[in-house]
UniProtKB/TrEMBL annotation:
PANTHER family: DELTA(5) FATTY ACID DESATURASE C-RELATED, FATTY ACID DESATURASE 2. CDD domains: Delta6-FADS-like. It comes from Mycolicibacterium diernhoferi. Pfam families: FA_desaturase. Residues 69-333 form the Fatty acid desaturase domain. The lineage of its organism: Bacteria, Bacillati, Actinomycetota, Actinomycetes, Mycobacteriales. GO terms for cellular component: membrane. GO terms for molecular function: oxidoreductase activity, acting on paired donors, with oxidation of a pair of donors resulting in the reduction of molecular oxygen to two molecules of water. This is Acyl-CoA desaturase.
C-alpha cells in the first residue's frame, strides 16, 4: 500500500501534506529548544531509582526466608529490569539524551542489561525499523521474521505453528532482539554471514550476561544461590513478556498499516511523517506502567520523533492529536487491553491461509 492509497489520507492535498510536515517540525523544534536542566535531572533520577530498586530487590530475594518475600523481591526486580531495558536502554540508545553530552548517558556508550549487543541493535532498530517503518522487505520488525501480520505477506505452512511460536517469542524476547541485531549486521555487510568481529561481540555479550545473571550473582548468595538463580530467571522472563507486549501493541493492532517498497520512491518528509502515524498505535496506561514500558504507550509520537526524550512524549501527544483532528486524520489509541486483543487477533488469524481468513470474515459479516 502507498500513502496515496490509504483511504484516511485521500482528502489531503499536496499542500496539506507539506503543512503537516511544517507543523510537526515546529513541535520538534519547540521541544528541542525547551530541553534543559529539568530533563537532565529526570533521566538521572530514573537511573538512580532503577539501580536502587535493583539492589533493594536483590537484597530482599537473598535475605527473605518466606515465599512472599521472594515474590516481592522478584516482582521488584522484574520492574527494575523493565525500566532498565525500556526507559533507559531503548531510549538512551535512540540518542534521546545525547544533547546532554554526558559520556555515561549517551547512545554510543550505553550497554543495556540483556543478551543482545546494544550497538548491533541500534542499527537494526534505529535505522532499518525507524527509517523504513512498516515497509515490507525493508523493516524486519514486521512480524520479526516469525509472524505473519498482514495479508501482503505470503502464507506458509509453518505459520500454523503461530500460537507456539508466539509464546516462545514473548518469553524469550531478548533473544529475538539479540538475533535480530546480528541478522541486521549480515544485511549491512551484504554477505551471507555477519562479520567475524560482530559474531565475537555477539557471543561475548551473551557470555557476560549469562555469567552475571546465573553464575556471579547467585554465587554472592552463597547457600541461597538457588533463590537468586530462580529470581533472575523469572524476572528476565517477566521483563521479556512485558517488552513484547509494549512492542506489538504499538505496531500490530487494527489500523496499523504496512507499505509496499514503492512508497519510498520520491517520498517527501510529510509523507514519511504520515507513514509513521499510520503504521503505529498508542495505548493508554498509568504513569508507572508507562515508565516501565519506556513511554512507548506514545508509539505514534515516538515514531514521529524517535530521538526526543521520552519524558516529553505525553505533552507532544496532545499537540499531535490536535493536528490529527485538524486534518481529519486517524489517531489510533485505545486501552492496553484492547490493543493487545487486536494484536493477538491479527497474529493468530493470519496464521491460516487467506481462503480460510476470507471464509471466516464472510460468515461473520452474514451474522
Amino acid at each position: 500500500m502507498a500513502i496515496a492509497d490509504v483511504p484516511s489520507y485521500l482528502h489531503l492535498t499536496d499542500a496539506d501534506v507539506e503543512e503537516i510536515a511544517y507543523e510537526l517540525d515546529v513541535i520538534r523544534r519547540d521541544i528541542e529548544d525547551s530541553l534543559g536542566a529539568k530533563d537532565a535531572a529526570y533521566i538521572r533520577r530514573v537511573i538512580h531509582f532503577q539501580r536502587a530498586l535493583d539492589v533493594a530487590a536483590r537484597l530482599t530475594i537473598a535475605g527473605s526466608k518466606s515465599k512472599a518475600g521472594w515474590l516481592l523481591g522478584t516482582g521488584a526486580l522484574a520492574y527494575a529490569k523493565s525500566i532498565e531495558n525500556m526507559e533507559l536502554g531503548h531510549n538512551i540508545s535512540h540518542g534521546q539524551w545525547d544533547w546532554m553530552n554526558d559520556p555515561e548517558i549517551h547512545s554510543n556508550t550505553w550497554e543495556w542489561d540483556m543478551v543482545g549487543d546494544s550497538a548491533q541493535w541500534r542499527y537494526s532498530h534505529n535505522y532499518r525499523h525507524h527509517v523504513y517503518s512498516n515497509v515490507l522487505g525493508m523493516d524486519e520488525d514486521i512480524g520479526y521474521r516469525l509472524h505473519r501480520v498482514t495479508t501482503d505477506q505470503q502464507w506458509r505452512p509453518v505459520h500454523l505453528a503461530t500460537p507456539l511460536r508466539n509464546l516462545v517469542l514473548a518469553a524469550m524476547f531478548e533473544w529475538g532482539i539479540a538475533l535480530h541485531g546480528l541478522h541486521s549486521e549480515k544485511l549491512r555487510g551484504e554477505s551471507s554471514d555477519a562479520p567475524a568481529a560482530e559474531k565475537r561481540k555477539f557471543r561475548a555479550k551473551i557470555v557476560r550476561q549469562l555469567a552475571k545473571d546465573y553464575v556471579f550473582l547467585p554465587a554472592l548468595s552463597l547457600r541461597r544461590w538457588r533463590r537468586t538463580f530462580a529470581a533472575n530467571f523469572t524476572a528476565n522472563v517477566v521483563r521479556n513478556l512485558w517488552v513484547y507486549v509494549n512492542i506489538i501493541c504499538g505496531h500490530i493492532p487494527d489500523g496499523a498499516e504496512t507499505f509496499d517498497p514503492a512508497v519510498l520512491k520520491d517520498e517527501t518528509k510529510g509523507e514519511w511523517y504520515l507513514r509513521q502515524m499510520l503504521g503505529t498505535a498508542n495505548y493508554e496506561v498509568s504513569p508507572l506502567v508507562a515508565l516501565s514500558g519506556g513511554h512507548l504507550c506514545y508509539q505514534i509520537e515516538h515514531h514521529l520523533f524517535p530521538d526526543l526524550p521520552s519524558n516529553r512524549l505525553a505533552e507532544v501527544s496532545v499537540r499531535v492529536r490536535e493536528l490529527c483532528e485538524k486534518y481529519d486524520l486517524p489517531y489510533n489509541s485505545a486501552s492496553l487491553g484492547r490493543q493487545y486483543f487486536r494484536t493477538q487477533r491479527t497474529i493468530h488469524g493470519l496464521a491460516f491461509p487467506d481462503w480460510v481468513v476470507r471464509l471466516v470474515r464472510r460468515r461473520s459479516s452474514c451474522r
